[in-house]
Design goal:
Distance between the termini: 45 Å
Shape: globular
Order of helices and strands: HHHHHHHHH
Number of strands: 0
Length: 228
């Protein structure tokens, strides 16, 4: 976890001081946002691909939900938690007017930290959520960069496809996966033996809040598009 925090901090500084240094003056909010996108592209792409490959090599995925965490599962959680913690500091210090992203990072980080360092079980649920939740990360960050850099051609090319894909993943696939997790963690005796019910309820509530925030966010952009 500490080395992953160093890694993502390095990506952030690389984006701020090198990649986008000439685009905006020092201290510009958009320069901070673009630096955050550098971290997010690497995190989202790597975690979604690693999680998908991992799931493809498992024969019985459902049985993994209540099993003890594997070293790979804990490693990917620590790696991902580091990203959310570094990005959370970014929002608190430089873009504090984004409460949806702040709350999302707090819920997500607490979910993974408790799963990794408290229960020692349930890490596979985060693997499932990485696949459905982070698969749109690359496209979202390219879209965001095109928006804040005012790259009209790229933004117009990506806008509608991105909103459609994001809506499908966050409005259909993620809720379906979350419902499957709820059925297991909230109504399964096997789950209650390894994950306390109040904590399992908090996990599912955190994911539900994350989905709600994502749908609210994308709906605002659909509204902007329709108004044009």
């Amino acid at each position: 976890l500490p080395w992953s925090c160093v890694f993502f901090t390095g990506l952030y500084l690389l984006g701020y001081w090198v990649v986008f240094a000439r685009r905006w003056p020092r201290g510009a909010v958009d320069r901070f946002k673009a630096a955050s996108c550098c971290m997010s592209i690497v995190h989202g792409t790597s975690t979604s691909m690693a999680a998908a490959i991992y799931m493809m090599h498992l024969k019985h995925t459902k049985s993994r939900l209540g099993a003890a965490n594997t070293r790979f599962e804990e490693a990917i959680m620590e790696y991902s938690t580091a990203y959310f913690l570094v990005d959370l500091v970014h929002y608190l210090l430089f873009v504090p007017n984004q409460p949806l992203f702040v709350l999302h990072h707090v819920f997500t980080s607490s979910y993974m930290l408790s799963c990794c360092f408290y229960t020692g079980h349930g890490a596979f649920s985060t693997i499932v959520l990485f696949v459905v939740g982070e698969s749109t990360s690359f496209l979202q960050n390219v879209w965001t960069i095109s928006l804040i850099t005012h790259s009209a051609k790229l933004f117009n090319l990506l806008n509608v496809p991105f909103l459609i894909i994001f809506s499908i993943f966050r409005g259909v696939l993620t809720p379906w996966a979350t419902w499957q997790l709820c059925l297991y963690f909230l109504f399964s005796r096997e789950a209650s033996a390894v994950v306390p019910f109040p904590l399992a309820l908090y996990w599912m509530w955190s994911v539900f809040m994350g989905i709600s925030g994502s749908l609210y966010w994308v709906s605002t952009h659909w509204a902007k598009l329709m108004s044009k």
